[in-house]
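Page 37, continued from 36.
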């Protein structure tokens, strides 16, 4: 039995059965949008080495008339669907449906993205973006070695976390000009790596200075200065979720201010502006990964073994996940106050 979609959520689709969709030129010559498309296409390839789920969708009130080319290019370049929803008459129902869609897209990890009363019947455009990531280490951590221990918020204040332990070969180095260790922990097949930036001390100012001076180029440069060494690694086992309204961090007035916004390339409806852009990231770090290969037996090797370097992440640090093939940052965060 065929069922019609609810009036509160009518998908704006490109139906080949109703009419022939022209092959629009979304960007000519190819530039930044096409480059982002290549990155997203690479990241969305199926993999058993990690879980990476995106939920990216633009919701517009059903009174807004979107241009066909905009719908086509948003989907082609950014894998972003545009939905028409009855926001004006049923904002609460639309909110619940958005939350359910995000939950399904992230396999139940991200729930209740939009809290009650996060928007009202006057909303026009809602852009929701969510990401869930969990990788499989190239070599797993032994769960039996994970133990609850102290994590220092400052030199005098601490709390308890689960700390994972492993000794092995890792790329490690120190940032010149500041006393910060950098460690790379690769995921399976070296498609991605977790990088941890660890100040030597617990001083909150040291971490803040490091954070304030960050740039994409710096992070890439630091990831290239590391050298393989024997390392005793101690890092927290954690899961972090962070939800933000991007409006609070970036000046989006060219999109959110009805007097400034020019969305004529997206819609023929006048006076349309972006109401809200919400982003949520959920990342999990645990012991799971591949098995360690057996070390070769060299009975004649009598060279003295060097003591392994210590990497003890028992105080606040920064981290990022890098996709090697596209040089893209999947996640960038701070582990400072465990919950």
């Amino acid at each position: 039995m065929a069922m019609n979609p609810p009036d509160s959520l009518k998908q704006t689709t490109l139906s080949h059965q109703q009419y022939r969709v022209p092959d629009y030129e979304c960007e000519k010559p190819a530039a930044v949008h096409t480059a982002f498309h290549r990155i997203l296409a690479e990241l969305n390839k199926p993999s058993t080495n990690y879980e990476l789920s995106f939920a990216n969708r633009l919701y517009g009130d059903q009174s807004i008339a979107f241009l066909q080319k905009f719908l086509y290019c948003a989907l082609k370049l950014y894998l972003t669907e545009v939905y028409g929803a009855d926001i004006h008459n049923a904002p609460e129902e639309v909110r619940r449906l958005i939350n359910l869609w995000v939950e399904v897209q992230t396999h139940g990890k991200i729930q209740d993205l939009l809290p009650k009363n996060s928007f009202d019947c006057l909303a026009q455009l809602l852009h929701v973006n969510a990401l869930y990531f969990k990788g499989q280490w190239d070599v797993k951590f032994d769960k039996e070695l994970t133990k609850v221990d102290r994590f220092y918020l400052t030199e005098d204040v601490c709390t308890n976390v689960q700390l994972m332990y492993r000794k092995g070969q890792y790329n490690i180095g120190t940032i010149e000009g500041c006393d910060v260790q950098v460690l790379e922990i690769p995921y399976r097949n070296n498609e991605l790596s977790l990088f941890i930036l660890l100040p030597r001390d617990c001083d909150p100012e040291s971490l803040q200075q490091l954070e304030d001076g960050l740039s994409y180029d710096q992070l890439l440069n630091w990831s290239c200065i590391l050298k393989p060494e024997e390392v005793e690694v101690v890092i927290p086992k954690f899961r972090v979720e962070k939800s933000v309204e991007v409006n609070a961090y970036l000046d989006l007035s060219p999109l959110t201010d009805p007097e400034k916004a020019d969305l004529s390339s997206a819609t023929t409806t006048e006076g349309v502006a972006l109401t809200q852009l919400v982003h949520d990231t959920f990342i999990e770090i645990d012991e799971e990964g591949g098995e360690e290969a057996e070390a070769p037996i060299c009975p004649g090797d009598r060279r003295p073994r060097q003591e392994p370097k210590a990497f003890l992440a028992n105080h606040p640090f920064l981290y990022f996940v890098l996709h090697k093939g596209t040089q893209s940052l999947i996640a960038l965060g701070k582990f400072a106050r465990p919950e």
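Confidence is low (pLDDT under 50) at residues 13-19. Flag for discussion at group meeting. The helical segments are 32-43, 68-78, 91-105, 204-212, 216-224, 253-256.
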